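step 3/5: co-fold with S-adenosylmethionine
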Amino acid sequence: MDKTTHFGFKDVATEEKQSLVRGVFDSVASKYDLMNDVLSFGAHRLWKHYTIASSNVKAGDKVLDIAGGTGDLARAFAAKVGDSGQVILSDINATMLNEGRKNLINKGITGVEFVQFNGEHIPFADNIFDCVSIAFGLRNVTDKNQCIAEMYRVLKHGGCLLILEFSKTDIALLERFYDAYSFNIMPKLGKIIADDEDAYQYLAQSIRKHPNQEALKKMVLDAGFSSCEYHNLSGGIVALHKGIKTY
Ligand code: SAM
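step 4/5: write tokens
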């Protein structure tokens, strides 16, 4: 692995990134859901709804949500798989996972399992999940190729990978507005609401460093997926990549 990597726009030692990312999510965990609603004007709910609708997950399926945080996807998957299925909500960060646990309990959702681990090393056997998802998580993972390889490994043949992540818009006017908003306004809102301006500066920067739609598609195909299609949401500010493991 390379000796350095990026943490937002900063170059840091590769082994340092994970603890810097942990610091970000430890700091914002209790305000994470509120910030999502405010910063995206509620649009993250539509992006996640589209992801669930695209998943083809059905009653009885086994689903693993990686970097699942406060549990939005896991909750929706639980409703789809029903009592005969299984949903695992996982995250590297205990504070985020606890927020997820509290959320699901408060909403009366039972049956979701919670497991803390790094998406680069998934502690499950090969070929066991019908669907593996990661929403707004891959950007934060140090070795993205390793994480995609692990998601491939645990999926069943015929299983489906869903990566929902910030991406690149090619609408010039939207890009100008989005740059101004994300570099100037988002960190200020982060300061006011979550008392952490730096965490939301990191958010804006990490989005710019993330591979664009085509680059991420190539990474998914290179990991062995037999197909990968993406769908732009909100003009490409976000994209959903869907990979299928055939063999
Ligand atoms: N999936 C949730 C959502 O869409 O609201 C939470 C997304 S939040 C922006 C990113 C999450 O990725 C955080 O909960 C963070 O702890 C988690 N994360 C960061 N690096 C990770 C890693 N290497 N493995 C697993 N989770 C990780």
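step 5/5: annotate
The pocket of S-adenosylmethionine is lined by residues 21, 25, 66-70, 72, 91-93, 96, 118-120, 135-137, 140-141 (CB under 6 Å).
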